[in-house]
Amino acid sequence: MTKYSGLLLLLSGLTNCYAMRVLVTGAGGQTGKHIFQKLLARPGYVPIGTVRSEASRVALLEEIGQDKAESVALCDITGEDTSTLEGLLKDCDALMICTSAKPAPTGEINNETKRPMFGFPNGQPELVDWVGQKNLIDAAKKASKDVHVVLCSSMGGTNPNNSLNALGRVTNADGTTTGGDILKWKRKAEVYLKDSGLPYTIVHPGGLLNEAGNERELCLGVDDKIPGTTNNSVPREDVANVMIAALEDAKYRGRSFDLVSKPVGEGVITKDYGQLLASLGGNNCDYSLGEIA
């Protein structure tokens, strides 16, 4: 072994020794997958991605390679037994929450609006966005009071009548409703995280786009108001970039904000995420607005 190769091995060992261990939930989903794969490709990180089903695990490994099998864990965050979560979070430095209830057409048509109806076949928002996220936050707190929780939520939470809340909601014969209210359940989880004592960053993206990131100027705001643009969407990859920036810049801790992007070609492409956060000033989202479930 040459002196040079020995030095490389030593540096590699030091990198692994001080690597940040990060649990990424929803790693098989569209936004979580961006985060998980970016962390896998970056030195200084040891990411563990969770998926809910064996089919999702197989599909994810087909993309990232079978040699990464130890980096993908099968885990249902909504279960009553949280021992698996607690085991995964042991020795973790950060938790990236990218799980969310996912609406899908039911095949039925609303008689009043004549539009397709949506439900949540893999779990209502109350179960996924509240119970599941609460389980994660509790497990993180049990693992260490220093686990930095970065939560991907959604814009729209200041408006209880946002159309997203109507998805999956059913009106009962007595006039009460059940199901749906996804933004209200998300907001409840956010407040729970803020009150947990854990370091946190809460990101509210606008409409999520399956388009390339790193091509737009990003804009931050609070309470569903973002100065400088009327656009209300953002590529998932750019959401991933901001969430990873929150791991790397301590100024992102204790912050809750909205995120959108300008259209491609408008403005200056965002490259400095510290400067991006500085554009927000000292503003944080106001949780006295809107409603929680």
UniProtKB/TrEMBL annotation:
Question: Signal peptide: which range, if any?
Answer: 1-19
Write out the transmembrane intervals: none
Q: What is this protein identified as?
A: NAD(P)-binding domain-containing protein
Arranged from A to Z, the UniProt key words for this protein are: Signal
Which residue ranges does the record assign to the NAD(P)-binding domain?
A: 26-249
- Its domain of life reads Eukaryota
Give the organism the record lists.
Answer: Cyclotella atomus
